[in-house]
Automatic annotation (TrEMBL):
Residues annotated as domain Nitric oxide reductase subunit B cytochrome c-like: 37-217
Highest classification ranks of the organism: Bacteria, Pseudomonadati, Pseudomonadota, Gammaproteobacteria, Cellvibrionales
InterPro entries, A to Z: Cyt_c_oxase-like_su1_sf, Cyt_C_Oxase_1, NorB_cytochrome_c-like
Protein name: Nitric oxide reductase qNor type
Coiled-coil region list: none
């Protein structure tokens, strides 16, 4: 411990400080969340909606797929509009039209420029002035605004029904006919959309910005970037440059030359006889590639909906498998197969850590965990289908159907099942680790691995701190604990430490180097990663300090990624140290790809949308899936596949990888991802960015803009990248299937 004491204290200090920041400002999220009024009333006393009816609208939105059908406050899918920005712009237009007829007896478009400017000034005063009374919990609106709300609500009621005059719009938005069959629930849905737009237009008490920090960009009411937005954007860029410079200096002056151990004559991991629990991991590897294949095929299918809307090459399939459902399955299956790959890697290591033997009943636990995973996958997918098809009773939706929140779409019962499975994995891991920790010798690397395993096992539980009717700002705080902190934080530490542990056990790196590198990497990841969670919450009804903390620390997330090229080279160079390393050439190459995509997808594309001024204009545009695809698959996908191939190679000792299959799989996956991004997602996102800056987010996501010929052509072009990617995915899947079921190349 003594030789690593400084590194341990550094990591512990970082964890204490960063979690304190996350907790303190999380408390502010609760205190400062936009209020949901007890009543919304007109100045004549007419009641328009209530707290319960707005929350009923939130549950109605969840039941149609929630964030998988358009977005709210910029979070969600990208084909349908952002409902907040769309509602706000439509309501503003209705108000101006009503005001023009009341004041001048003419349509707004026929007024003079001076008259239009006069009404726009009155509009800004009417909408940005906060008329919510915290004592009575009543929100007061004018009769004119009440009429504008009613007109906008009528449009949404028809849009989410099967009204024939809006069939073309539904097709443009990839919505199925009669998306929400109940007229009463459509009325409640409109009230929820109104509330999200009210929070985005009304100034927070004591501030000159709205509850959502002036997001979305809406020139009609002067929703523009705040001074704080620009200030913290500049600070984040300066910190990034300073962080990169500091890392390079530390790398040059503090990094010690590695004490390279003598290379073993044979792979030390093969000196252990396979245990029953390790032999049982074949089915996990099959589940990984089965879900992977399902996911990429669904991805191509879902992407095609952005072109035809309700059809797949002329076949109307939207009534059975609409966009919101297939996108849900696409994202959820990705999370399932990536997590399964990580779980399999951990379960493979557990007996090795335990001295080459299984703890008692380990195989039984491995088998139970597998079938529990299968049950959660199948159950959650069926629940998603029944919810979006409105076969499931509305009151069951949140628990068994669809929560409506991107990345945690599965019903709460299935979420509990998934958490139970992860805890079971944690128990299985700790049973193998506990006895090893009691043995004499240096256990620092094992202690760090243990800490990451415990964090993975427990932090998924953050998703239980919100409920069906939790206010959206609070829900987003906890959702990003799962999506950002659990996935991007603790999985990153586990992956780094697990790889270091594997290479150390192979005799390729020294224990000292593996331990010091893992501790230093964990400190760097956690320093930016924990408070960096707030960069997802700039415009989710939070205050300026949340933006400041998020911008400051999330810039530091990019810093360690600048040295990943060297890490990739170090990993690849390991194969030259021993002839037997050629047996795991392909897993190593997948780990090299992880480093590349971490730099590009998480680093370059991540920081592209990270500063507040950038995210202000690009949140909810196709620049976000550029980062999501390059980081989620490019980093965690390649990592899970690398773990899968590595475990496969060891549990099937006589397996020889098929070079033709592996070359096709590896290079076509990378090429397909590049094509997907470079020829479609990124160009569309940049074109949308121009529209967002020039006109507003509502326009960049509008039917008029998204259905223009150029953007439709770019969405068609994506098909080529999708096909290349699918070929690569099927090649890798077939290699794993051949290996698992005993075929030899």
């Amino acid at each position: 411990m003594s030789e690593y004491r400084k590194l341990w204290w550094l990591l512990i200090a970082i964890l204490i400080v960063t979690f304190s920041l996350l907790g303190y400002f999380g408390r502010e999220v609760y205190r400062q969340a936009p209020p949901i009024p007890a009543e919304v009333i007109t100045d004549t006393g007419k009641r328009l909606m209530t707290n319960d009816s707005i929350l009923d609208g939130q549950t109605a939105w969840q039941s149609v797929g929630g964030m998988q059908l358009g977005s709210i406050w910029g979070h969600g899918a990208y084909q349908a509009p952002d409902w907040t920005a769309d509602w706000l712009h439509r309501e503003l237009q209705q108000w101006l039209e009503l005001a023009a007829r009341d004041e001048y007896q003419q349509p707004y478009a026929e007024l003079s420029a001076a008259q239009q400017h006069q009404l726009q000034f009155a509009l800004k005063q009417a909408y940005r002035t906060n008329t919510y009374n915290p004592d009575t919990q009543q929100l007061l609106v004018s009769e004119r605004r009440a009429q504008a709300i009613a007109h906008t609500a009528d449009y949404y009621s028809r849009l989410f029904s099967d009204a024939p005059e809006l069939q073309g719009t539904r097709e443009s938005y990839a919505m199925k006919e009669n998306t929400l069959p109940s007229p009463e629930r459509r009325a409640r849905l409109a009230e929820f959309f109104f509330w999200t737009a009210w929070a985005a237009a009304t100034e927070r008490p004591g501030a000159d910005v709205t509850y959502t920090n002036n997001w979305p960009h809406e020139p009609l009411i002067d929703n523009r970037p705040s001074a704080e937005n620009i200030l913290w954007s500049i600070i984040s860029i300066v910190l990034l440059i300073a962080g990169v410079g500091g890392l390079i200096w530390a790398w040059a002056f503090l990094r010690k030359e590695e004490d390279v151990p003598p290379v073993p004559a044979t792979d030390p991991i093969t000196s252990f006889a396979l245990t029953p629990s390790q032999k049982a991991l074949g089915k996990y590897l099959f589940l990984v590639v089965a879900l992977f294949s399902f996911q990429v095929l669904l991805g191509g299918f879902t992407a095609h909906y952005t072109i035809e809307g309700q059809q797949f090459y002329g076949i109307d399939v939207s009534q059975y498998f609409p966009y919101s459902l297939t996108r849900t399955w696409h994202i959820q299956s990705a999370l399932f197969w990536i997590a399964t790959g990580f779980l399999a890697a951990g379960l493979f290591l557990a007996p090795i850590i335990n001295g080459g033997k299984d703890p008692r009943f380990q195989k039984l636990g491995v088998d139970i965990l597998f079938w529990a995973l299968v049950a959660v996958v199948v159950g959650s997918f069926i629940g998603n289908y029944l919810a979006i098809a409105h076969i499931m009773p509305a009151e069951w939706n949140f628990w068994l159907g669809h929560q409506g929140y991107e990345y945690v779409d599965l019903g709460r019962v299935w979420q509990i099942g998934k958490f139970t499975g992860i805890v079971l994995w944690l128990v299985l891991m700790l049973r193998g680790i506990a006895s090893a920790l009691r043995q004499p010798g240096d256990k620092n690397l094992l202690a760090l691995l243990t800490a990451s395993v415990v964090a993975i096992g427990l932090f998924y539980g953050a998703g239980f701190f919100y409920g069906e009717r939790t206010v959206l700002s609070v829900m987003e705080y906890w959702r990003w604990w799962v999506v950002h902190l659990w996935v991007e934080g603790f999985f990153e530490v586990f992956a780094t430490t697990a790889l270091a542990f594997i290479f150390y056990n192979m005799g390729l790196v020294s224990r000292t180097h593996a331990t010091a590198a893992s501790l230093a990497s964990a400190s760097l990841f956690m320093l930016g990663g924990i408070p960096g969670t707030f960069h997802h919450l700039y415009f989710s009804g939070t205050t300026t300090p949340v933006m400041a903390v998020g911008a400051t620390f999330s810039a530091l997330e990019v810093v360690p990624l600048v040295v990943l090229g060297y890490e990739a080279w170090e990993n690849w160079r390991l194969k030259q140290r021993a002839a037997w390393m050629n047996n795991i050439k392909w897993p190593l190459l997948f780990f090299v790809a992880v480093a590349f995509w971490n730099m590009l997808g998480a680093g370059v594309f991540g920081f592209m949308i990270n500063p507040p001024i950038s995210l202000y204009y690009v949140q909810g545009l196709n620049t976000t899936p550029v980062h999501a695809h390059a980081a989620l698959f490019g980093v965690y996908g390649f990592l899970a596949l690398g773990f899968t191939l590595l475990v496969l190679r060891y549990i099937r000792p006589t397996l020889v990888f098929d070079e033709r299959l592996m070359k096709t799989g590896f290079w076509w996956l990378n090429a397909g991802l590049v094509l997907m991004i470079a020829t479609s997602l990124l160009p569309i996102g940049l074109i949308q960015l121009h529209a967002s800056v020039a006109e507003g987010l509502w326009y960049a996501r509008s039917e008029e803009f998204m259905q223009q010929d150029l953007l439709e052509t770019l969405r068609w072009i994506r098909t080529f990248g999708d096909v290349v990617f699918i070929v690569g995915a099927l090649a890798v899947a077939w290699q794993v299937v051949k290996g698992v079921f005993g075929q030899r190349a």
